[in-house]
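FIELD: query
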Amino acid sequence: MKYKSLIVILFSSVLSMLFITACGKPSETLSKSDDTIESVFGRPTKTKDKFKEEKTKNAANIDSTQFSINLDGVNTTNELEDRIEEHLAKCIVSLQSRATDLINEIDTYDKYCDQVEKVSNFYRTVEEETNLMSIMLREYAATYGRMILDSDMSNKEKYRAVDGINDYVYEDACDEIKEKIYDELMDDMKDHFYDGIVEDGKDSAEYSEWYDISTNEYSQWYDTSTKVYGLYYDAATDIYSFYYGLSLKLYNGDLKRAEKVYNRFLQKIEKKKNKGNNTYDISDAKFDTTLRSASTPKELEEVVDSHVSECVQALNKEWSDLSSRIDTYEKYRENVDDVKDFHEHIEESSEQILKMISQYAVVYANLVMESDSSSKDKYNEMDDLKDCIYDDACDYVKDDIYDKLLGDIKDYYYEGILKDAKKNIAFGEWSDARGNAYSWWSDTRGDVYSEWSDTRGDIYSFWTDVRSELFSGDIDKANKKIQKFADKVGF
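FIELD: result
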């Protein structure tokens, strides 16, 4: 059942991503114009600074303290399970209550038009609070694991007890986010606003005005629904991986490596909490995928992390330079080829980074094989390859390029400069410009995701193949597997 549940989530995610890439807009809206891709996602922006200020303003209205875990009075895993259920329910009910208030307050088309920004801000609130809830559940999963590791139970008892993370956090709690927010709350928002009062305004409003408002409402609902699902999926995946890794180490009685699984999970949580708050200086970052040397697996972990991070920072620097140079519609029109080329550059750069990460997987495996450890120890040490390469390094591409960088580009040009230009230029020109911008973004995003997914799949297969041979004690076959993968990734 544990594996079956994970497969269902992975399959659902793939379907979701394919749907997002292929569709992205309501069919009724698309039928209005063959030349226009209408998808306006709220928060119109003219500059990056304005966009960042708006996001900060919206997030500032959220009381983040309600998502801080409090363990007062919690001394057993049973008490922790009750606390998780109560805390999550309180957070969800609070969000649902505010959604109900908004729906009751804005109950006509005219009221919607007067307070459309309030609706848009609430969608941002749903995204932000779902993110905070998903981080909160990760922290509860870590707390659950810590209680088991610190207990005086035998290793066998700890192995059985860790199932609570799977049952109460991965399955029950994560499912609550999907069912109560992604399924119920977001459906209620669509039923009331897009299918309800906005649709009702069609006959009484001027068509062009209604068309823009209707498209805007659907798009921001769709964008938030997609974001909420992604947050749920990422949290469920992280929590299951933590549970499975901890369970495996406890089954083998390896408390030292169980602690390592726990500490890596804490690092992942910190990264999620600090996402978007990077303060590093990108001015000197350079894009160079030439492999760097390391003499031990531990040293290589630091090399890989800093190297991939630097490449991503270099891409961000290029984006900063481009957006500063092309910051009006007139400049966009004059330099549109540069914008198009930058989308292609992101795709090519992502491929180079992922190839570099795959080659580092080979380096990592070779360093493990070169040690004097036994086959069993080598088998265990290969676990760290998965953590460093498959999880941490590949996460940079998905989180910082697929999600953040491409998201920033879409916000800045498609939803910002190009959207604002509508009132000043001929509709045909505006329609073509936005259609092209959306196509470049969508194609690049789909290609980056596909490359990321394929690379992770290859690395995972490589990792399992080598470990399988080491488990059997066949060093020669393990080395052959490494060489086969090295040939595949051009190393």
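FIELD: remark
Residues 53 and 59 are 10 Å apart (CA to CA).
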